[in-house]
Amino acid sequence: MTYCVGIKLDAGLVFLSDSRTNAGLDAFSTFRKMIVYERAGERFMVLLSAGNLSISQSVREILQVEKIPGAERGDEPITIWNAASMFDAVRVLGSAVRRIYAQDAAALKAAGVEFSASFILGGQIRGEAMRLFLVYSAGNFIEATQETCYFQIGESKYGKPILDRVVTPATPLAEAAKCALISMDSTLKSNLSVGLPLDLLVYEAHRYASDKLVCIDADNPYFRMIRGAWGAKIRQIFEGIEDPQWNGAQTATPLRTASDRHQPLKKITHAGEKLV
To answer: Which residue has the higher pLDDT, 131 or 74?
Structure first.
């Protein structure tokens, strides 16, 4: 399992991925889930992957040479390196996923293995705005919007609540990176199949390059601070919320009020009776 998140903001893009892969409770390995495609001054793209490792590695390997069948730009087929837009680039990725499916899906099914892989592709090509896409196992995809400005793949449920409460398109890049790391910490705390080291990349709009890329291990001072401070702040906030009070006269926020109309279904038995 893994956990990856990509966030699209007005100011740029934030990407974060873990590096744990497991093939059983005692078979954990480390494989990087982030890869950067860069042509300085012209295009900058980041790919995050989750799911079956053999599938995602195969897709990543052929992505740089894969062409969209029947699509051409001038006299040459469209690839990730000459695509004029991020839409064409994600179409190339979808084509690569379908090519691996056609090549391997039958053999995987015969071995009892599900064809499972998902990807986040985001970046910017000169001449257009930044874009962020989520690509499914079938090679189809959706794009981030103002209303839904981030995507998660892998073990996403533990890290989603903090993203939903904090991230909007107007969020500054530094705050979004902090939020992504807290999202990851929540996932690490609750799921052993997600693990360090982490890859974090922050892209500033219209730069077509990034110098904000870091590999985070257990000794990283900022992430150690995040892990300690976040847990402490949650406990502090929790302790600051009053306990439930059954007597409404003692608090402005009673647990039970005189106007309560709905009660749980209660089964009552008398002495000697059996509840059936």
So the answer is: 131
Identify whether the C-beta of residue 60 lies closer than 8 Å to the C-beta of residue 100.
no
**Which residues touch 34 (CB under 8 Å, ≥6 apart)?**
4, 15, 17, 46, 47, 48, 199, 201
Q: Which residues contact 215 (CB under 8 A, 6 or more apart)?
A: 197, 198, 199
Tens-place pLDDT, residues 151-197 = 999 999 999 999 999 999 999 999 999 999 999 999 999 998 899 99
End-to-end CA, the chain = 45
Distance CA 137, CA 48 (A): 14
Domains of the chain in start order, with CATH, are: 3-234 (3.60.20.10)
**Whole-angstrom distance, CA of residue 94 vs CA of residue 231:** 40
Average pLDDT rounded to a whole number, residues 201-212: 98
Residue holding tokens 């990349």?
201
What pTM value is reported for the model?
A: 0.91
Residue whose entry in the numeric block shows the structure tokens 């004029």: 84
pLDDT at 71: 81
Q: Tell me the pLDDT tens digit for each residue of 146-155.
A: 999 999 999 9
Quote the DSSP letter at residue 197.
-
Q: Locate 201 and state its tokens.
A: 């990349």
Residue 270: φ, ψ to 5°: -100, 165
Residue 18 has pLDDT above 90, yes or no: yes
Mind giving me the DSSP string for 44-65? EEEEEEEE-HHHHHHHHHHHTT
Angle at 3 between CA 225 and CA 87, to 5 degrees: 120
136 to 43, 115, 121, 139, 161: CA distances (angstroms): 23, 11, 11, 5, 22
Q: CB–CB of 24/174 below 8 Å?
A: no
